[in-house]
Amino acid sequence: MAMLEVSHLEKHFGETEVLKDINFSLEKGQSLAIIGSSGSGKTTLLRCLNFLESPDSGTIHVDGQLLLDGGVKTKTSDREVRKKRLRFGLVFQNFNLFPQYTALENVMLASQLLARERPDYKQRKKEIFAEIRANAENLLAQVGLKDRMGNYPDQLSGGQQQRVAIARALALKPDILCFDEPTSALDPELTGEVLKVIRALAEQHMTMIIVTHEMAFARDVADEIIFMDGGVIVERGPAHQVIEHPREERTRHFLAHYSAS
Amino acid sequence: MFGTVFASLNEGFLVTLALFGVTLLGALPLGLVISFGSMSKFTPLKGVCRVLVWIFRGSPLLLQLMIIFYVPGKLGHNIWGFQNGRFWAAAAAFIINYACYFSEIYRGGIESIPRGQTEAGLVLGMTKGQIFFKVKLMQLVRRIVPPMSNEIITLVKDTSLANIIALTEVIWAGDRFMKKGLVWPLFFTGVYYLAFNGVLTIFFGWVEKKLSYYRV
Ligand SMILES: Nc1ncnc2c1ncn2[C@@H]1O[C@H](COP(=O)(O)OP(=O)(O)O)[C@@H](O)[C@H]1O
Ligand SMILES: [Mg+2]
């Protein structure tokens, strides 16, 4: 069974149809890259998955469980939405780290707040916090920031900030981690260190959806690629095939702007 | 002579300080409530809050003091007739007036925090309350300390307006000597304001420095 199953997803902003009948699935441990020109609806799709936008219709299943049915407009409680959105993680284009917290605190914060809801929080507070801290330190080491844990975001380069943001998303152990153009806000010389971290996650079989303009990276790291244009999925296929032998004219046209080498 | 003057001025200044303190205690939280109201998605509430702010910021505090103190009595409800009634009438006017000013400072601060901060919190499973208290509040405090300190220093001086409803604050105390032909006590009240605002300026400078451990 697929880890993620998106069916007939539709989203309008007023009159503009931003997502039209989006269907795709993603297997556990696979990574999917989404490419497409600006305005094609990639960000909106990720935001729907992360409950930052509510789709007008369509369904999202994770692990066979219905997470969202856009057609049903019942009011779900905040608590339920929070639980559901934790199945996903999202790494933003511009990091959105919390400036008043150190790298380590950024990674720990959400876990600490969630821990308060655990039934054993009061009795085991110390242990729980020690676990959270150890986990955060591990993650920061994993993204190569072992010696920058005490730094505030403004003391870090863009690439370092984005790596903290990745560690922060990983701390909550999402089933599916989404990236929205994680290197687009970075100077070219800093993209490599972030892509390396994502590549390592792919090798550990993290289930991921990566919106990116780095074609070579998408080809080499993703299992499959979706090309979107004007709110529809134009083409979907194995990564190498889509980049090297696109079937659709629109994909070919789009890729002509990039030389994936 | 000096002794009586100082005793009397000190007594007046205590009233000034009390009005200042009570105003802050009331207006700081009330301003936050009004700022939330004026950013509400519920249009009637937003409308009411914005009109309230417009009225209290758009008209003289002196006039507000007089209306709040005298009008109820003229209508036959002498609500300020109790002991210290004048003080609480003045406090009511100051609290509402300053809450309106503070609410605009809060609103500016909250609106200047990037939307991405909230979204990052949401995606990390935080509740709206957690996002406000753990993510935005600190950034808000930092942004509002400079404009707030200006407003608070103005408040110190504005307390003297309560003179108009015969509240016995420090200038009122000085003025009593003036009426008996002794001039210097009235002028000397300025020293109280200067000293207190000096202390506040140093305090806010220290707070700003404390808060600048990170840059935005
Ligand atoms: N909040 C919004 N309100 C109105 N239109 C929006 C909003 N967000 C995105 N759009 C529109 O939806 C379309 C798709 O945007 P987006 O999902 O950001 O595309 P991409 O990430 O592929 O560049 C664009 O035309 C954009 O202008
Ligand atoms: Mg986008």
Helical content of chain B (DSSP H or I, runs of 4+): over 70%
Mean pLDDT of chain B, as a whole number?
Answer: 93
| Number of DSSP strand runs of chain A | 10
Briefly, what CATH class of the domain at 4-87 and 174-255 in chain A? Alpha Beta
Evaluate the radius of gyration of chain B: 20 Å
**Structural class, from helix and strand content of chain A?**
alpha/beta
Q: What does the average pLDDT of chain A come to?
A: 94
Unreliable runs of chain B: none
Overall number of domains of chain B: 1
Unreliable sequence segments of chain A: none
The CATH architecture term of chain B is Orthogonal Bundle
Task: Tell me about this structure.
The complex is a heterodimer of chains A (261) and B (216). Chain A is of the alpha/beta class and 261 residues long. Chain A has a domain at 4-87 and 174-255: Rossmann fold, CATH 3.40.50.300. Helix content of chain A is 38%, strand content 24%. In chain A, the strands form two sheets. Chain A has a six-stranded mixed beta sheet with strand order 6-7-8-3-9-10, sandwiched between helices. In chain A, a hairpin with a 2-residue loop joins β4 and β5. Chain B has 216 residues and is mainly α. Chain B has one domain (2-211): MetI-like fold, CATH 1.10.3720.10. The mean pLDDT of chain B is 93. Chain A binds chain B through residues 50-52, 78, 82-83, 85-86, 88-90, 92, 94, 96-100, 109-110, 113-114, 152-154, 168-169, 172, and chain B through 114, 116-117, 119-128, 130, 134-135, 138-139, 142, 213-216. Adenosine-5'-diphosphate (ADP) binds at residues 13, 16, 18, 36, 38-44 of chain A.
Secondary-structure map:
The complex is a heterodimer of chains A (261) and B (216).
Chain A: E1 4-13, E2 16-26, E3 31-35, H1 42-49, E4 57-62, E5 65-69, H2 78-85, E6 88-91, H3 103-115, H4 121-142, H5 158-170, E7 176-180, H6 188-203, E8 208-211, H7 215-221, E9 224-229, E10 232-238, H8 239-244, H9 249-255
Parallel strand pairs in A: 3-8, 3-9, 6-7, 7-8
Antiparallel strand pairs in A: 1-2, 1-4, 4-5, 9-10
Chain B: H1 2-38, H2 43-58, H3 61-74, H4 85-111, H5 115-123, H6 128-158, H7 170-179, H8 184-211
Helix pairs in contact in B: 1-2, 1-4, 1-7, 2-4, 3-4, 4-6, 5-6, 6-8, 7-8
Bound molecules: adenosine-5'-diphosphate (ADP) and magnesium ion.
